[in-house]
Write a structure and sequence with these properties.
Blueprint lengths: L1 H22 L6 E8 L11 E8 L4 E9 L7 H7 L3 E8 H11 L3 E6 L3 H14 L6 E3 L7 H11 L13 H11 L3 H10 L17 H10 L4 E8 L12 H16 L3 H31 L18 H8 L5 H19 L9 H22 L8
Antiparallel strand pairs: 1-2, 1-5, 2-3, 3-4, 4-6, 5-7
Helix pairs in contact: 6-7, 9-10, 9-13, 10-11, 10-13, 11-12, 12-13
Length: about 375
């Protein structure tokens, strides 16, 4: 009887162990890590990329989940992107295929292996797989609140017991604009700076702060006991550029414009008029884009853009009157001039940051509108005999 009980207990423990193993077939050997990829040469890669790697040593799979996938062949791709209607989606790639692309492009990839519990790994892994099903894959992209990095950040901190620590991010704008400058695309950076509104000047809280790849990498690194191991998967030379900012180019342009406006020379006056027309045209086009992004698009970062006080499509009206001998051009100039002055006076209290490059552009707008006022004074109305 004792032998029977002994063997029965051994059999029972073996059976329970087998059942326990069967109940968690994909949990015991999961390794979850965050991959942070360096910037590339294309504009849409300037901010880098974030992905999740899940290694399942039981099922012998090594998958990289990527929320930054989009289709260039999507009809009206550019229009949808500008309006904020472009659907991004999650994709899953074999690790070797994913890493081969970054090796070919010579872009650094750093892996942070996460020290998560088995239930946390399973919970996140299952959520990733559910995201891969049919319409679950798609989401409306927003470059500060919903992108390839924020989706992974949300998955990590919502599916685990870890809480994000604070990192030094002054505002959404500072981080979004900084990347193009660092990658040698300062004019792209300036264009983005002009399109971002006061909404982007908010200081993000601890949970919002890691909205870009490098920021999430930093926040994970700073979160105690979260990282088990760091691996450099692809080594590449960083392409950070020391290219000069547009500030000096714009400043020289402003000085030339001012000099040509004041110097009593026929040749310089022609140059000043050419610059008048050029700035009226450029400010009209730029202003139309700012209106669209601030008032029509779904990109919240572009909301409440006070650049509209000096950069707007109404310059097109001034451009039409510029070639008509009429005093109306002067009245238009006075309205525009007053708006720019009001912006300068109230800028200290406005919730929007203006970079030094933008201030030079505001100076150009001020001079342009002053010249419109002067042109109106020199254009007396025709008198009937």
């Amino acid at each position: 009887m004792k032998k029977f009980i002994f063997f029965f207990l051994i059999y029972a423990f073996s059976a329970l162990h087998s059942v326990a193993q069967d109940s968690i077939p994909n949990t015991a050997k999961l390794q979850v890590s965050v991959l942070t990829c360096a910037a590339g040469e294309d504009i849409y890669t300037v901010w880098g990329h974030t992905a999740v790697r899940v290694v399942d040593s039981i099922n012998h799979t090594d998958i990289v989940f990527n929320y930054g996938t989009f289709d260039f062949n999507e009809p009206n791709f550019l229009t949808k992107f500008l309006k904020g209607n472009l659907l991004y989606f999650i994709s899953a790639n074999n690790y070797n295929d994913f890493i081969a692309e970054y090796q070919f492009e010579k872009r650094e990839v750093v892996e942070q292996v996460l020290k998560l519990s088995t239930p946390e790994k399973v919970k996140w892994y299952e959520a990733l797989k559910i995201n891969m099903i049919d319409s679950n894959r798609y989401y409306l992209y927003n470059f500060i609140t919903d992108n390839c990095t924020t989706r992974i950040k949300d998955g990590l901190f919502k599916k685990s017991a870890f809480q994000p620590v604070g990192i030094n991010v002054p505002s959404f704008r500072s981080e979004v604009v900084k990347a193009p400058y660092q990658q040698g695309l300062p004019w792209i950076g300036l264009g983005i700076d002009l399109l971002l509104g006061a909404y982007s000047d908010q200081k993000p809280n601890d949970f919002q702060a890691s909205f870009l790849p490098k920021l999430l990498h930093q926040q994970i690194a700073n979160t105690r006991r979260l990282v088990a191991k760091n691996n450099i998967l692809v080594t590449a030379n960083q392409n950070n550029s020391n290219a000069s900012t547009p500030f000096y180019t714009l400043l020289v342009l402003l000085l030339i414009y001012l000099f040509a406006s004041k110097w009593n020379s026929l040749a310089l006056q022609k140059i000043a008029k050419i610059l008048d027309v050029l700035f009226l045209l450029l400010f009209s086009i730029g202003g139309a884009l700012v209106v669209y992004m601030s008032l029509i698009s779904k990109h919240t970062a572009c909301y409440q853009n006070y650049n509209l006080m000096w950069l707007h499509p109404f310059y097109l009206i001034a451009l039409l009157f510029y070639f008509i001998r009429n005093q109306a051009i002067g009245k238009i100039g006075m309205v525009f001039f007053g708006a720019v002055v009001a912006l300068i006076i109230t800028s200290y209290w406005l919730p929007q940051h203006f970079s030094k490059e933008v201030w030079v552009l505001i100076g150009i707008a001020l001079l342009l509108n002053y010249r419109l006022i002067e042109k109106g004074r020199l254009n007396p109305l025709f008198k009937k005999d």
